[in-house]
Amino acid sequence: MEGTIMLWQRLIRPVAPREVPYEVRRREELLEQAQRIAHVGYWERDLRTERITFSDEACRIFGLAPREGTITIEEVTERLHPEDRAIWSSALAHTLRGGSRCDFNYRIVRPDGEVRFVHSQGDLTRDASGRPLSLFGAVQDVTDLKRAEHLTQLVFERSPDAICIIGRDYRYQRVNPVFELISGRSAKDLIGVHVADVLGTTVFEQTVKPKHDRCFEGEEVRYADWFTYPDTRRYISISHSPLHSKSERVEAILSIFHDLTDYSLASDALRSAQAELAHANRVATMGQLTASIAHEVNQPIGAVVMNAQAALRWLGVDPPNLELVRQSLDLIVKDGVRAGEVVSGIRGLLKKAPPRKDSIDINNAVLDVVALTRSEVLKHGLSLQTDLANGLPLVQGDRVQLQQVILNLVMNAVDAMICIADAEELRISTSSDASDRVLVSVRDTGPGVDPNIVDRLFEAFYTTKPEGMGMGLVISSSIIEAHGGRLWVTANEPRGAVFQFSLPAKQNGVSGDGPRQALAA
After folding, report:
1. Higher model confidence: residue 144 or residue 284?
2. For the segment 216-232, what is each residue's pLDDT rounded down to a tens digit?
3. How far is 390 from 396, CA to CA, in rounded Å?
4. Which of 33, 110, 163, 233 is most buried, by CB atoms within 10 Å?
């Protein structure tokens, strides 16, 4: 009997619940985490009881506490935005009438009053007789996406630039109001229309299509040009950006047209004003050098007179010494050429002409300035030395403008050095750096530059000279920057300042074996 009781006890002993395997729990946790990150929950609607079961994330989306889980259809309806309840009812009714899947967007109102945008889709399950049993689906919070779409729409519609989207068939898919304005057509008259029908076949085939084709290959295309319209000309900056599909294939082009006419005209006016200012600066500088220039011209003219008188004397002897006459005439020619070069250099600096882009040997530009300033330097008891590197690359730019910069730097150095009793040497040197840029340095032995004002030297109207206007370095810096270079100042050792500028070398351009004969003053 006792054995029977023990056997019975073993048979009726409660069985401990089976533990859920770790792997299963881990998958459930990961699924829950994925739903939370993606703002996607799942739901199931029992069509027989009209009860709806929400996952934890679905509860969070609707503003419910997780694990509240099962709610009625009436409670869900209360959460729907009043304007979207018809969307919900219509989508479900359509599915129940014969569909197999519902897919729709709507708004919900959370208990705290916050409105959210959600996207739901679900599959219908039927029994063997075809009677609907349940709906199982997913719900996703797409509020952030909707807001981003709304902002994108606002940017598209309210952009001050003309914007359009063009498909692979070269037809307009979408245009914004500004595009309608500049094209003179409404959106309904543009959507679906071929670009060639708007711009003309010739313009499309020769100009537009090649750029569109590059964009359809995945390239970002940008350019700007003047365009002629019926009543005006406009300078337009255009960008074509590829729009990719999920397969990475470029399906369309986003084109943006930015009107830069006013900017371009203002830039032209600014360049014109800068050119006028630079010319005025050159004239003022040449005015400072009047005595020196007169000396430079008088020297060869005086030599011409002396050699002409000598030639007359040699012709007057009996018999005439024709060899000495020939030598005198050779000297007259050389002195005449020298005087002509001085005058030509002065005319070039004083002449008002548009900027040029020539191939320039910077060493020869330096020597031209040396010739103009030699007498001014000597007048103040100073020495001007040159240290010009051979075989420098050519630079591309305006010779007169670059000479103006060198002239300004030399005259500034002279002004600085005449204030110092023992200042003697002014040196101009040229070289090239590791990146093949050409460097020009003007070294003086004046008082140097106060470190506290270095940054202000290149400000307009800032000057350390009582009679200065404070525009020389500003103009010089703008000229060098316009040539793709940079102008700066450092301290000279043991005393003075070094003003230097660098210029990009012209590709495949190298100067000759050396500059013209360097003259020291």
Report:
1. 144
2. 999 999 988 887 765 67
3. 18
4. 163
Are the C-beta atoms of 292 and 376 separated by less than 8 Å? yes
Structure tokens at 372: 């103009």
**What residue type is 135 in one-letter code?**
L
Is position 455 within any domain? yes
Q: Which of 516, 294, 282, 499 is closest to 407 using CA atoms?
A: 282
pLDDT value at 214 more than 80: yes
Asked if residue 456 and residue 422 are part of one domain, the reply reads yes
What the block records as the tokens of 513 is: 């074996």
Burial class (CB in 10 A: 0-12, 13-18, 19+), 431: middle
**Per-residue confidence (pLDDT) for residue 347, from 0 to 100:** 61
Q: 22 pLDDT exceeds 90?
A: no
- Pick from 326, 353, 380: which residue ends a domain? 353
- For residues 327 and 414, membership in a common domain is answered with no
- Structure token digits, residue 418: 């005449």
Cα distances from 153 to residues 157, 159, 161, 243, 455, in angstroms, run 6, 10, 14, 16, 46
Q: What does the H/E/C string look like for 170-207?
A: CEEEEECHHHHHHHCCCHHHHCCCEHHHHHCHHHHHHH
The CB density around residue 304, as the number of other CB atoms within 10 Å, is 19
In one-letter notation, the amino acid at residue 68 is E
- Closest Cα to residue 387, out of 504, 480, 498? 498
